[in-house]
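Something for you to look into today, if you have time. Just paste the record in under my message, thanks.
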Amino acid sequence: MPMPPQAAARCLAMLAIGSVASAANGPVAAQTLRPALDYANAATIRDTCLAFAAERGLAVAVAVYDAAGRLIAYAHMDGAPTAVGEYAQWKGRSAATIHVASKETANWGPGAPPPGLATWEGGVPFFTTDGAPLGGVGVSGASSAQDSACGETGIAAAGLLSQRP
C-alpha cells in the first residue's frame, strides 16, 4: 500500500532535519584506526626466531598471532616434538590476547588458570613503539628462557617492543 502524500512529506522533513543536525555536529568517525600486525612483520618474527634456534642447535615451533588472537605465521622445525607446536600456539595466543608474557601469567596465583591462559614461559606479547599492542609470539621446544629469548629476538628484528614503553 502506498504511503499517503502527507506522511511522505513528514518523513522527508524529518530526514532533512536529521541531516542538518548531524552536519552541524561535524562528521562522525565510523572506526577508530589502530595499528595492525601485517604478514611481513609476523614472518620476520618467525624467521628470526628460527635462525636464533638453528644457530644454537635447538628445534622449536614458533607461532605468531595478531592482537585478536588470529594465527598469522607459524613454523615447526624438523626434530621438534609434535606437541611443542601446540604449546607454542597456546603461549603465543595467550600473550597476544592479554598482552602479558606467559612468564608472568605463570605466577598469577594458585588454582586452575582460565582457559587459554598460558602458564609456561615462552609466550611474549609485542607492541608498537607507541605502546599499541600488535600481538604475541609463542615459542616452544627449548628451555623456557631460550623460548622467550627466541621470541624476543624476533620481535626486536621486526622493530617492535616486547614490553610497553
Q: What stands out?
A: Residues 95 and 125 are 5 Å apart (CA to CA). Residues 5-24 form the longest helix (20 residues). The beta strands are 61-66, 71-76, 123-127, 133-140. The mean pLDDT is 89.
